[in-house]
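Input chain follows. Return structure tokens only.
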Amino acid sequence: MSRHRSVQFRRALVEYDLEPSDDAVLRAHAFDSSVRSAAMALTEQVEIALRGRLDVAVEARVGVRWYLSPSTFGADFDHAAFRAVARRVLDRSLEPAVRSAWQGGRFERIPFGMLAEELSFGDLVRLASGVGPTPRAEIAAGFRVPTSTLRSTLLHVNHVRNCCAHHVRLWGRRLRVPPPTFRSPLELLRRLDGLPKRSPAHSIELLAYLAETTGPCDRHTAALRRLLDEHDDLVDGLGGRPTWARA
């Protein structure tokens, strides 16, 4: 690892009253890597579900190329800027089906389901936040969160995803983009209770809650529980244990 990262882990070990030896730094680094892998697997389930739920929520009302209609979105949504983003990702796509459909640069040949596979998670968050109130509420209901928190929830998930994808350290730090302050539903409040906001443990609990709306995620949560059991002294650096990883 880089000298800077080594220093950061050593400082974090001292902060949590742990021995800052070279072996301890390597162990914390490996632990952090495994935590990021588990978190990334959970964000993958959320991202795939967002693509599908966004399309289903709007397609039934507008059609498969709903993204082309400015009336699909709220007044604050920059539709021209989104079309420019869509054109760029389609231009650089290496997917044969996309390249074939995109010949001539005609959006009319590209259904949203095809475009969605090329868009970043951040692009999908902007779309889900920009569509009208009825489909936005449907998407929020699919993830079992209040509509008022959908945008901030997805922005936080995107931040965690980017940290994991770019190998940013999670252990021993607070996340820069905070999750929303939830006031409902009760199940989510119960699960987040006692986990410090902006802590990795809080984010992982939220990710598991969202991922469970897409189907079983036992494989990921069980792997993380085993990891925490094997490194109990490092749990404080995550902000605690998620509810499903407690004794």
